[in-house]
Specification:
The structure is a homohexamer. The model of chain A has no long low-confidence stretch (mean pLDDT 87). Chain A is mainly alpha-helical. Chain A is globular and about 55 Å long. The relative contact order of chain A is 0.13. Chain A contains eleven helices and no strands. Chains A and D meet through α1, α3, α4, α9 and α11 of A and α1, α3, α4, α9 and α11 of D.
Chain lengths: 196, 196, 196, 196, 196, 196
């Protein structure tokens, strides 16, 4: 591999290390302590994993979903936060036009020297627009991951209701089912082995 | 006290609690782990304390500095971050006009129902413009506090040089002296009692 | 500024950095984990902010309260803990005379070379005696801040009752109202923007 | 989506949440404090990101690498640790046959009810054998991520040498180049914007 | 003391430092955040303290219990985890024969150069077999300590039931009484001084 | 066991849980971040372990040391801190008579209802006086444990010198040897298995 390209790749890679330490700031506004919030990096992994599980099943059932595109979209969907931070919905809400632009510009800056700049910015843009099936699926996974994180933190109990508000955005029928099952404690993580 | 006013005050007060948990995000970009970064609240206290120490001495030496105004400015200087987060200099740099506006709007939103909305927004605005002696003094204290925090974290060693870059902004002669004394380890925190 | 004086100021300032990391120890006795307790520094900021909000309103309503004195008192009220630690009420209770003396001596030691030694020790002493309106107001703010912190930590649920016990100390009528409003969840931190 | 299948998927997803909190235990044996170690989840994301960057470039250069397979392999490579923990190389070394079997069994147990059990176990098995180009590339990314993490923690300085020992395993020519560039500080994460 | 022996002792001692940072991993599977789990070292101390309290009382009541042996057993009972980690019951359950062997081998490796290798391995082996009164008493203390830890973490509420499952293992009559008293909140830690 | 006695024992046991979360405060004055300081509980375990290793070897060499007494002394030596906190040497230095009394009273309060009140207070008192061989040995272990902790935290580099100052207190010949070996990096924790 060309040494100059390798260097550019490693530079972005070292920058992405910050995402391991950045708390997902929105959770702090829900009353989380600093260490109860997950990191941008950890959230991105569980989101990508759930996206993979769901897209695989959808494909199996004959739905036209591009599995590999969806996985990459999930991997990239929050990477701009490494640079611009997990700015609250507040800022986004206040000046949506202006701020959306800033986040977009942040991403461009971060990935500008990568061999795959175009693929990344294009997938994140697709995600932001929430139109394609893949974009809506990743949003669904992103939302369920926030719910899973919030469920474990008692301070967030009052805020669990907010997680129902994205139904209309994803328009994926099983989104509501999934939120319901998690909220009603119908699913328990694998613990059968603990009883042995 | 009127109950409705009390309620409005307590609402802002409960919102400010988040600042206890928000890491100063810029430090993470310098290589800090999440718990090596101080909180917005803790930083604001040490900044206000140093402002008080320095302004008292300046006043004693006959300089025209409004001590009480400076203390309040220090207390308020980062309070908007409770809402908009400690967004990196990056975002600020990219679209300074646009973003400055967002931070300002965030502050207004946060304090809009307080009896002292005007005093707060006016002091933060004065701070941002860096023109009055008080504004420059608080900036100096803000800068020395970041330096003190960074000195204790080895990962930040390479970044210590950045702390010299604000000399030209504060134009306070002893700013450079202070940075120099801290960087050269000429000052050690009170430890004489440990030798007993 | 005289270099020797600057050095003395910076020495105290560097010592105060410890307060960013010191957990408020009393919370651990209520069942908090280490990172659920706020720091002495962060607590001091929110206390000073609430003091400012309340004193401003009281003044507006014609009450004779020295706003600037109250703010400084709030800033200084726990600074001795940087040196002597947040020793439990236990120790204080056991040997109140003896220990009060130790805390006082700790403060003197810490600030002995500052240009404003006298103002600091005098304000802390006034605070400890809980007689003046400013002292009682700062105690009220100190108490509400502990309540706000405790409310977010489920382990402290059983201990919330203790926060009612200072009514008789502050003798400020709206103290009880404020505690009641916070305990009954009548106030929610600013979250309207999250619904957007 | 079939509700029973959705439930099975969500069960694994909720179990994977643990990986956000599990410290990479090997780092503690290098002298890291608990919060200096990254989580299994965060490590998996940065590893997948680097795998994507490198595989994309390799493909562009005409190498036969299956990009999508490599990304999935990176996502899955440590997921068994969610169940069996990040057991030290010690245990692995002592009874390699026996333990390898345990880790494999742990993975099977975790994913046994997923629609894609086979794909996951097959990719992890391929990764463990380190024979295909994709397996060696993911190992390389896994290794560089550990190096990036270790570089930021001074306690690990003495252990940086261990990171050179996997050259012979990956047999990818630029592995050595990359380790060298990171160790020699030839690459600095994106910070140009901080100078503005 | 012979310098070579001292060196061997200090080597094990420095290795044991890791136990201060290792979270008790099983708690994470119950939904704890990383910093809500206690460390292997801290758990070992409280277990040894409770063992001492209970064994002293039992002896006083005429039961034949070797107090000093019990204390040492409690001190050593989890020290192998410093090397092999706090591997979940899962792994232990899956391949009990195989894994038990690994843990045993880990301990031997860790203590192999100590003057007291034999005493340590023999006491840990006795503990594992749960036959002698001392072994069952230490298991009881180990279990109550996990219960005390879990009680303080709301996320573990659903898992409190698991703590009843070791009755049949210890066969110590007051085990059940103790679990009951703790679960029913009949005992509150020393707080009388807080009311002063 | 008598239920009333069991209840008293469990009350102290639940109170001791706080020691798992209390940072050793003195380290914060050396520049440690909150999570870089070990807990009072974890420190007590490693101190007891080292005491056991050393006393065993001394006994083997024919020295008259009461091994079981030494272990218990190590277990108890800091337990009063659960109540009075790890108050800085400062306070102790300032008013040694007065404060020593407070710590003693704190311990008495904590253990007053235990069946073994006398043994505990007597052993802690013996430790404080530093006269018997066991007391000096536990002090040595306490000191080496602080050194081991400090070595891993770069911020404490300048403070390592303080650890040499207790030679004259313990008067145990190998104390100096041990400090020297640790400071000079002559001993590395068990890592041979990492090279496999």
């Amino acid at each position: 591999m060309n040494k100059a390209v390798l260097k550019k790749i490693l530079k972005v890679f070292l920058t992405l290390q910050w995402a391991k330490e950045l708390p997902r700031q929105g959770f702090i506004a829900l009353g989380f302590k600093r260490n109860e919030a997950d990191s941008v990096a950890a959230h991105s992994w569980t989101t990508a994993m759930l996206t993979y599980f769901l897209a695989s099943e959808m494909k199996k059932n004959g739905q036209k979903v591009d599995l590999n595109k969806a996985i990459k979209m999930a991997l990239f969907h929050d990477m701009a936060e490494t640079i611009v931070g997990d700015v609250g919905t507040f800022v986004k809400g206040m000046a949506s036009g202006a701020f959306a632009g800033i986040e977009e510009e942040g991403l461009k800056w971060l990935v500008k020297d990568l061999p795959t700049t175009k693929e990344i910015t294009s997938l994140v843009s697709e995600y932001t627009q929430r139109k394609t099936l893949e974009a809506r699926l990743v949003k669904l996974a992103d939302n369920l991951d926030a719910l899973a994180q919030a469920k474990g933190v008692p301070a967030a109990k009052d805020a669990l209701k907010y997680f129902k508000e994205v139904y209309h955005i994803t328009k994926i029928p099983f989104h509501k089912t999934a939120v319901g099952m998690i909220l009603k404690d119908e699913i328990e993580p694998e613990r059968s082995w603990q009883k042995r």
